[in-house]
Write a structure and sequence with these properties.
Elements lengths: L1 H27 L18 H10 L6 H13 L13 H36 L4 H14 L3 H15 L17 H35 L2 H8 L4 H18 L1 H19 L5 H10 L3 H29 L7
Helix pairs in contact: 1-12, 4-5, 4-7, 4-10, 4-12, 5-7, 6-7, 6-10, 7-9, 7-10, 8-9, 9-12, 10-11, 10-12, 11-12
């Protein structure tokens, strides 16, 4: 297993290089040009001073030359400095990363805690009202834009009912209050969980239906085992095997959804930092966040493969 993980990590290096190259090219060739990053700093600048400032940032060179210098700095452990406040990009990202990870982990836990039992119940009641109702809810959730759902939940539960805060991660003076922090995360976590609920529930339902039709389940029933034991001890464990693979496919959607969620709810996480950096043309920060997001997705896929081996003893990675 250790050798397999090392091989996967080494194999991810060319993929990360390709992602960074494409991202840098798209960013450098996007409308606006290098001068757009100056913003308010350009006010009062003469053309000569402006040109010198752009040259100092290295933005007067072709994008592939800029990428080469960025890559060299990366190999030395640096993601560069922000064009906005001249702070190290890595420092800015590490400040925001815990909030994004907290949002992702809580959303995944809530999604699994709801979607898997609902999927199992829908499979055991196939063709009945619960199956139809849960499927309808799943398709509705799947078709709902995450940013629209977030706005609706804010309007209902934060503005009208005033049950939860509208934005932020903590109330003024309550930065160390865990209860207040969780209260601020309720609506963002619910929003992200509802959108990802559909795929998990439908996948678990299909996997469970297939497991319930397997010969070993018929054998267990023929032995006279209680139906609950047949479903949750024999069928569910085997039905979870293909579901585990969905973890790696879900993580990219969760990371992308977290960007919209953080923007809607003004959560000071990595996603909000990324969107603000795109608007301000803060190239080094955008590249740092893109690279870290790609790493999270790759690690998520690797985690899914490792969990697959733990769930199914027949799987061996040599």
């Amino acid at each position: 297993m250790t050798a397999y993980v090392i091989r996967r990590l080494l194999g991810a290096i060319p993929l990360l290089l390709l992602v960074s190259l494409i991202s840098y090219a798209l960013m450098a060739l996007s409308p606006g040009g290098p001068g757009a990053i100056l913003g308010a700093q350009a006010r009062g600048m003469t053309p000569a001073v402006r040109a010198a400032f752009v040259a100092q940032l290295g933005l007067d060179k072709p994008w592939y030359v800029q990428y080469f210098f960025w890559l060299v700095a990366l190999l030395h452990g640096s993601l560069g400095y922000s064009f906005v406040d001249n702070r190290p990009v890595l420092e800015k990202i590490l400040e925001r990363l815990p909030i994004t990870l907290e949002l992702l982990v809580l959303s995944l836990i809530v999604t699994l805690a709801v979607a898997i039992p609902v999927g199992v119940q829908a499979a055991t009641q196939r063709g009945r009202w619960f199956d139809y109702l849960s499927s309808a809810l799943a398709f509705t959730a799947y078709a709902t834009p995450v940013f629209w759902l977030g706005i609706v939940l804010v309007d209902i539960f934060a503005i009208h009912l005033r049950w939860f805060p509208t934005s932020g991660i903590a109330a003024l003076g309550q930065q160390g209050n865990v209860a207040d922090r969780l209260r601020h995360l309720v609506l963002p976590v619910v929003t992200l969980s509802v959108v990802s609920f559909a795929s998990w529930m439908r996948y678990q339902r299909g996997s469970m239906i297939e497991a319930l039709a397997a010969p070993f389940v018929r054998t267990a029933r023929a032995k006279g085992l209680p139906e609950r034991l047949v479903v949750y001890r024999h069928a569910l464990r085997n039905a979870l095997i293909p579901t585990v693979t969905l973890l790696g496919l879900t993580l990219p959607g969760l990371v992308g959804g977290a960007y919209f969620i953080e923007y809607v709810f003004s959560l000071p996480g990595m996603g909000l930092l990324g969107i603000d950096s795109v608007f301000s043309r803060d190239y080094p920060t955008v590249m740092g966040i893109t690279l870290l997001s790609a790493i999270l997705v790759i690690l998520g896929n690797l985690l899914a493969d490792v969990l697959y081996a733990f769930v199914d003893p027949r799987i061996r990675y040599d």
